[in-house]
Amino acid sequence: MIKNKARLVAQGYTQEEGIDYDELVARIEAIRLFLAYASYKDFMVYQMDVKSSFLYGKIKEEVYVCQPPGFEDPDFPNIVYKVEKALFGLHQALRACSMGELTFFLGLQVKHKEDGIFISQDKYVTEILKKFGFSDVKTTSTPLETHKPLLKDTYGEEVDVHMYRSMIGSLMYQTSSRPGIMFAVCACTRYQVNPKVSHLYAVKRIFRYLKGQPKLGLWYPKRFSF
């Protein structure tokens, strides 16, 4: 604590909107809604690249910090400390340049057509199929077995929980443009704590379905009620 420099980091879960921050990161749902409205209004969407240059500057506000875990004062465990020395923060100087028509954003591929906007993630499908070894597998016509419900498997063989959760995470992001797999993915998500072979088989089936239908997406047509 004395010899080494320390960086002061705000704890994210203690931040309050309107007090500690004002700007929010766009959600995928908000992007979809924006593109749907742009299609309805027949707007052309353009993309800009905003580059930030970070400059040092002093923070004028008074800053108090709690005692870090493992370094609490046993005589005063509940006190907080006021930062007396110079404290530096980051200020952003923004520069923007146009990148033309929007074609790719947050993993979503955006195609402007004469009669609407189409968003998909077929490039992302290719990436996750390659990542988990499903590039050369037999395909299936449905993401979930229709006559065999996915149930808790108490006595089944366990599988690698980290791999299972990684596969689920990849599929959850895929649902941004593929609502057709949402039910199957959510069914498999229930068993992330202790996945079994039967659950992993269900997850693999979703990948096999994506392998057979990689280019499906969401279509927002023009000239229809928003």
UniProtKB/TrEMBL annotation:
Q: Which residues form the Reverse transcriptase Ty1/copia-type domain?
A: 3-95
Q: Which InterPro entries match?
A: RVT_2 (IPR013103)
Source species, domain of life: Eukaryota
| Name the UniProt record assigns to this protein | Ribonuclease H-like domain-containing protein
Give the source species.
Tanacetum coccineum
